[in-house]
Amino acid sequence: MSTVQRAVLWIAVLGSFVAFLDGTIVNVALPSISAELGGGITTQQWVVDAYLITLGALILVAGSVSDAYGRVLVLRIGLIGFGIASIAIAAAPTAEFLIVARAVQGAAGAFLVPSSLALITSNFSGAAQSRAIGIWTAMTTSAMIVGPLIGGILVDLVSWRLAFLINVVPITVTLVLLARGGFRDSRHPDASIDWIGAALCTLGLGGMVYALIEQPNLGWGSPVIWLTLVLGAGMFAAFILRQRTTRHPILPLDLFRVRNFWTGNVATAFIYGALALNGLVVVVYLQEGAALKATFAGLASLPMTILMILFSSRVGALSGRWGPRFFMTVGPITMGIGALLLLTTSEEFSYWWQILPSMIVMGAGLALTVAPLTSAILGAIEPERSGIASAVNNAVARVAGLIAVALLATIVGGSLDLEGFHRAALVTATLMIAGGVTSFLGIRNPARTPAASPSP
After folding, report:
1. In 80, 242, 284, 378, which residue has its Cα 20 to 30 A from 160's Cα atom?
2. What are 120-179's pLDDT values in tens digits?
């Protein structure tokens, strides 16, 4: 790599790392946040979903913004916004203030990952690009290991507030590298941004999520609940209709005419909704129900991450040889079986016999699923549209997690006790198995290229 390429890679890694790091830290900090600021499970839901609403809606428009204003400028704005929001979260005097800051943080985060990857693709080519993306993936995935450990230690020994301030360190380093790199922005003069579509999507999701989160507190009979639900659904429907008519859609609906693309995204919704629900419930229950320290609760799912890192690459190669259908069927069903193992959790708690077996089985299923799922979806779309296809799939995953978390209080019955934990495990298993069945029924393996005949 040249000096410039090395700097670009570090900027891309650090710029994305903060978003991945924050996502792993927040679940560990939720019990401490609600204990200090109040609000119980509702506050915990909003802390997660306020971020996902703006992230899921604006990640679709991130590519258009980068084209219009330049990748470096957008990345710099995203970093500064993420850093300011992190400081505001750390200083939050009330739950309401923190939730608004999380929404701002999600909006900034929406521009970090796409801009970071765009920097790599515009500065690397061929085999060097594949290697750079591989390094980026490995380094950003490490946040899934580092985040729970750092977050848990800070929550246990200092404060949950410091767990969010940790974002400022990589952000500062990245901004310094950007300033010293002397990078030139490339802009497309004909780029167009569908701000109306972005607003309709954000407000639509926000209205529906508000109704789902607050419904257990106010009841379906409350005008506030059904009115925000109807208005939210209406605005989201208007967003979909607008994407059919606008010249520059942020959600190209024609992509969903491709069988593997739409089937893969339906499977994504089931699988990532289940992962978001499971990730939140396990970490929070281990602290509030099993009385574990935040550090140990954050590390509880570490076996899943390790198995995914160790075997995802090998499974990806096998999927390329045999096709993704088998892996996308068996993987989610295996994760569903792992979720059912959580039903062995009892009042006489034992991590080693009740939680660890589930994490190992779910980790094996996750390793079987992730790479084939990604390759099936992106492989179904022509390479020149892979960027928007990836953004759509990412948005589907985020919105699925958003809805799953919004339904948390309804799923667990208002309280995350042992019974509620078991209910969440059943819902997780059902969603995972649904993802596997969807893949079996809908995914089609690409035709194999026949081997060349040997020369006479």
Report:
1. 80
2. 767 777 667 767 766 776 677 777 777 888 888 999 999 999 989 988 888 999 899 888
What lies within 8 Å, CB to CB, of 343 at 6+ separation is 422, 425, 426
At 384-428, the pLDDT tens digits run: 677 678 778 888 988 999 999 999 989 998 788 999 999 999 999
The total of structural domains in the chain comes to: 3
Domain final residue pick, 182, 214, 238: 182
User: In whole angstroms, what is the distance from residue 161 CA to residue 381 CA?
Assistant: 43
Q: Are residues 306 and 434 in the same domain?
A: yes
Q: Are residues 327 and 394 in the same domain?
A: yes
Q: How far apart are the first and last CA of the chain?
A: 42
- CA 67 – CA 35 distance, rounded (Å): 43
Residues 150 and 111 in one domain: yes
Identity of the residue numbered 280 = L
DSSP state of 344: G
Evaluate whether 18 touches 68 at the Cβ level (below 8 Å): no
